[in-house]
């Protein structure tokens, strides 16, 4: 259903993706794509962002959820990248998770998108789809779901599958009103 999909967050520099993915937690990529151009136009370098005014960053991103904490993380990520990594986004998952606001899922997205390192991070859409298709137990958390999916599918498919499952969850198998009619996966679904 979604043969040619990819990341829907807009970015031009590696650190911009790190910040965009962190900002996307509990909000939509569309919302993030509205605020990041303003943020990255105002603060054109990582160094400028590391020295940004907290109130200014809050004002720029106030339309997204949890904006006060996320604004602190934006500046803190920039500072850590400048001070500890010479302005370069690390590819190591453990190092990525040392960045403020970056957990397992965000680190997996960054590794897959920037470095093309196979990973299959699980967001709310993938978790829901995996349960509906009985790929995982109904009580599985995101980490258990990630581990199980990685066993079920070849590593060479992980990056593309991640995007396909997200798109399926965003645009077809919605949380409240799944579009079950004409769904090619209906025979596998427990939503029927």
| Structure summary, number of beta strands | 0
**Could you describe the largest sheet, including whether it forms a barrel?**
none
Q: What is the H/E string?
A: HHHHHHHHHH
Number of helices: 10
Mean pLDDT: 95
Globally, the shape reads globular
**Structure class:** mainly alpha
* Helix proportion range: 55-70%
Rg over CA atoms, rounded to whole Å, is 17 Å
Characterize the quaternary organization of these chains: single chain
List the helices and strands and how they pair.
Elements (H helix, E strand, L loop, with lengths): L13 H10 L5 H14 L3 H5 L3 H8 L5 H19 L7 H4 L7 H12 L8 H9 L9 H11 L5 H14 L21
Tell me about this structure.
With 192 residues, the protein is mainly alpha-helical. It has ten helices and no strands. The chain has helices spanning 14-23, 29-42, 46-50, 54-61, 67-85, 93-96, 104-115, 124-132, 142-152, 158-171. The longest helix has 19 residues, at 67-85. The protein is globular and about 55 Å long. The mean pLDDT is 95.
Structure summarized in a few sentences:
This protein has helices at residues 14-23, 29-42, 46-50, 54-61, 67-85, 93-96, 104-115, 124-132, 142-152, 158-171.
What distinguishing features does this structure have?
mainly alpha, about 190 residues
């Amino acid at each position: 259903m979604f043969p040619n999909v990819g990341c829907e967050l807009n970015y031009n520099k590696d650190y911009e993706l790190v910040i965009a993915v962190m900002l996307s937690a509990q909000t939509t990529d569309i919302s993030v794509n509205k605020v990041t151009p303003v943020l990255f136009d105002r603060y054109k370098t990582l160094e400028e962002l590391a020295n940004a005014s907290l109130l200014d960053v809050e004002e720029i991103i106030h339309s997204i959820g949890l904006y006060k904490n996320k604004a602190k993380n934006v500046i803190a990520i920039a500072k850590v990248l400048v001070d500890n990594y010479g302005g370069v986004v690390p590819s190591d998952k453990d190092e990525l998770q040392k960045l403020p606001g970056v957990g397992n899922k965000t680190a997996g997205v960054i590794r897959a998108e920037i470095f093309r390192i196979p990973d299959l991070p699980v967001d709310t859409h993938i978790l829901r789809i995996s349960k509906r298709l009985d790929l995982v137990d109904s009580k599985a958390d995101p980490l258990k779901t990630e581990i199980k999916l990685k066993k079920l599918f070849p590593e060479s498919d992980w990056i593309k599958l991640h995007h396909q499952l997200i798109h399926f969850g965003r645009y077809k198998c919605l949380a409240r009103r799944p579009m079950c009619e004409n769904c090619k996966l209906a025979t596998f679904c427990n939503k029927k």
